[in-house]
Predict the 3D structure of the following.
Amino acid sequence: MKLYWRPGKISNASLVVLALLAIIAMIVVEQNMVVIRQPHHDEKVRAVRLQMRGMEAIKQETIRQRKKLDPFADPAGTGMIGLNLSPITSVVGYLEAKQTSANPNFAAVVVEMMRRVGLAEGDYVAIGGSGSFPALNLATLVACKVLKLRCVPVMSMAASMYGANDPRMTWLDMERLAYEAGAIDHRSIAASVGGMDDNGEQLQAAGIDLLVAAVARNKVPLIRTGSLQENIEERLRLFAEASGGQPYKAYINIGGSEASVGSHFTKVLFKPGINRRLPRRPIEDEGTMTRMMREHDIPLIHLSNVTRLAERYGIEIAPKKMPVAGEGPLFYKLEYNRVLVAVLLGLLVAATILVIRFDIGRLLGRKAQ
């Protein structure tokens, strides 16, 4: 009877061969990753293109009026950044947030959120906001156009610093320009003065007059009842009337209009982005958005805390030049080629079995002697 002896320990040469094969396989996999389109890619790209069209129309009119853009406030040349102070400036605003919001790719963020809450063609969507984030206002209306939603915007006019706070270029002026350029299909059905108590309590009379004049020249009905609560009730009445009894499927809040959010303390109870239910904590100062959520049992898309939203969706913070439209994690993602991974894994397993059974490294060493 013939006995065959093989060492119980695999030679170092065989282990080196296996390690080299594994390293080569890893390099091949890393260098052959595939680009995968994200869900709703085509809708997002179309929204970004429409956003750029609307922004360009607004930019050209802004340049015509101001002669040039402010290189400090608007280094990317978006045309969507307002003034530091003006008679219609409501509260302090953060320039970094305004610069971040003026990114065409934010239109794709809104499309993503709308699809995540299940909005579909023909759905009614209520929109409330102010002039503080005109680029996000535009992105919301653009997304509604792309998804063929029946959106009903009711806006407040006053704006925080660097928002739509130029009396010659309020949000309603921007909205009209975008509509005329074909970037959006809907315009506000009504607007209020905005600011404190939604009636401009902190503004001078001249500032209020400028806002009322802007509403008039854009031929939009003015909400001016005399109190915040009555303004909220009027918004609810207008939303009900606009849908003709059809149910709303979502409420979208943009910024921190008191008529929409109720108060700052209410606003921060909601997380930026999608909120599917009301907070557990009691809400003392209810605005239109909480009333709509409760009375219609609908989700909220809360476009607030812009830098946090930007970080979540891979949007550049305060870019110094116009971002590339249609690029980034919202549109594409890199994935490993699963077929290639399976083939290389199979080869490594086969090589490992061969080494264990025959110790190829040791055999090669013997042949070399």
